[in-house]
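About this split. The held-out portion is used to measure sequence recovery: a designer receives only the C-alpha cells and must propose an amino acid at every position. Recovery is the fraction of positions where the proposal matches the reference. Here is one held-out target exactly as it appears in the evaluation file.
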C-alpha cells in the first residue's frame, strides 16, 4: 500500500470518544500546528524542543513547547518526509521518501543535507530510521528494503527484505540490537550488523500486521499490530511471546513507544485514542482525543512526557506522566 492509498483508507476510520476512556492523574496538552501541514512523526530533543515531519508540505518543523511557537524548513522539491529521530550529533535525521534520501537538518542554521539512495532503489518508500550504538543510521523502506548509512563517510548499503514489501517501524535495544517490523509481511526481524542479513521472527497471531516496534529496558521487543489490534512483546533471550488485545471494539494499533518506566504507549485509530499499557498489572488507560479522527501515527518521549502527532488534526499532543508513578 502506498502512502496516498493508506491516508485515504485511514481517513475512513471514523472514531468517537470511547466509554472506557480513563485519564486519572495524567495531564494532556495540545499544540496546534498549521492546518494542512500533514504531521506524521516527531522526536523530542534534549533542549526541550520537539522536531516533527510535515509530510503534506515536505517540511521539517521544530516546536517550542514553552510558548507553542514553531519554525519549519523545506526539505526540497517533492519532499514527503516520514520518520525523524535525533542523532548522536544532536541533529534530526529524516527518512525523506519524496526525494528517496536520508536528510539531516542542522539544528543551528536549518541547513538540509541529503544522502540519496542508489538509483536502483529509486522507489524504496522510506519509512523510519534509528541510530545504533556505533552511530550507524538504519532505516526501512516499505517497498521491501532496509538499509544503513554511515553518517561520517556517507557510505550507504541497501538490502532487500526477506519477504518483500512491508518494512516499517525500526528500533534499537539497550543491548545494541536492531529490529524492524514488516506491516505487509506480518513479522519482525533482527538485523545482523556485520552481514546486513535480517532474521525473521513470526509473531503468534497470523497476519497481524506488525507496524512499529520499540524496545524496553530489558531489550524485549514490543510490537503494535495494526491488523489484529493487539500489542505483543517478544523476548529474544528465550524466544517467548505475550500478546494482549487493546480494549474496545475493533482496535487498530498503530504506534508503540516504551517509556523510561517500561510502561507501553500505543495509539488506536479505532478508539481515536492514545493508550497506556502497564505490563505488570496488565491494565490499560485510554486517552481519547477531544477531536475526531486524530490518527496519531507515531509516539516518542522523554522522562515524564509522552509526545504524539495527531496527523488528522495537525496537532502535537503531550501527556505528562510524572504524576502517574
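Reference sequence for scoring:
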Amino acid at each position: 500500500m502506498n502512502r496516498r492509498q493508506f491516508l485515504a483508507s485511514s481517513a475512513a476510520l471514523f472514531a468517537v470518544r470511547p466509554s472506557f476512556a480513563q485519564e486519572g492523574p495524567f495531564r494532556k496538552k495540545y499544540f496546534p500546528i498549521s492546518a494542512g501541514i500533514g504531521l506524521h512523526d516527531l522526536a523530542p530533543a534534549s533542549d526541550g524542543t520537539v522536531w516533527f515531519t510535515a509530510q503534506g508540505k515536505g517540511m521539517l518543523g521544530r516546536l517550542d513547547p514553552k510558548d507553542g511557537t514553531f519554525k519549519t524548513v523545506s526539505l526540497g522539491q517533492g519532499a514527503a518526509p516520514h520518520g525523524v529521530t535525533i542523532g548522536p550529533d544532536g541533529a534530526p535525521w529524516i527518512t525523506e521518501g519524496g526525494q528517496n534520501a536520508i536528510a539531516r537538518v542542522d539544528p543551528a542554521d536549518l541547513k538540509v543535507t541529503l544522502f540519496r539512495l542508489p538509483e536502483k532503489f529509486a522507489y524504496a518508500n522510506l519509512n523510519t530510521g534509528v541510530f545504533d550504538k556505533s552511530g550507524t543510521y538504519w532505516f526501512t523502506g516499505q517497498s521491501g528494503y532496509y538499509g544503513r548509512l554511515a553518517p561520517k563517510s556517507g557510505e550507504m548499503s541497501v538490502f532487500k527484505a526477506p519477504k518483500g514489501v512491508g518494512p516499517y517501524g525500526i528500533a534499537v535495544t539497550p543491548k545494541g540490537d536492531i529490529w524492524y517490523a514488516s506491516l505487509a509481511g506480518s513479522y519482525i526481524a533482527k538485523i545482523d550488523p556485520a552481514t546486513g542479513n535480517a532474521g525473521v521472527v513470526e509473531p503468534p497471531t497470523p497476519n497481524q500486521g506488525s507496524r512499529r516496534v520499540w524496545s524496553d529496558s530489558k531489550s524485549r521487543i514490543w510490537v503494535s499490530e495494526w491488523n489484529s489490534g493487539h500489542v505483543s512483546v517478544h523476548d529474544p533471550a528465550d524466544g517467548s511471546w505475550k500478546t494482549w488485545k487493546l480494549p474496545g471494539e475493533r482496535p487498530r494499533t498503530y504506534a508503540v513507544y516504551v517509556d523510561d518506566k517500561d510502561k507501553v504507549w500505543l495509539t488506536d485509530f479505532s478508539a481515536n485514542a492514545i493508550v497506556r499499557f502497564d505490563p505488570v498489572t496488565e491494565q490499560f488507560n485510554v486517552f481519547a482525543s477531544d477531536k475526531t479522527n486524530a490518527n496519531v501515527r507515531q509516539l516518542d518521549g522523554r522522562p515524564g512526557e509522552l509526545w504524539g502527532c495527531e496527523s488528522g488534526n495537525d496537532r502535537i499532543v503531550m501527556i505528562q506522566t510524572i504524576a502517574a508513578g
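Annotator remark: Residues 1-23 have pLDDT under 50 and may be disordered.
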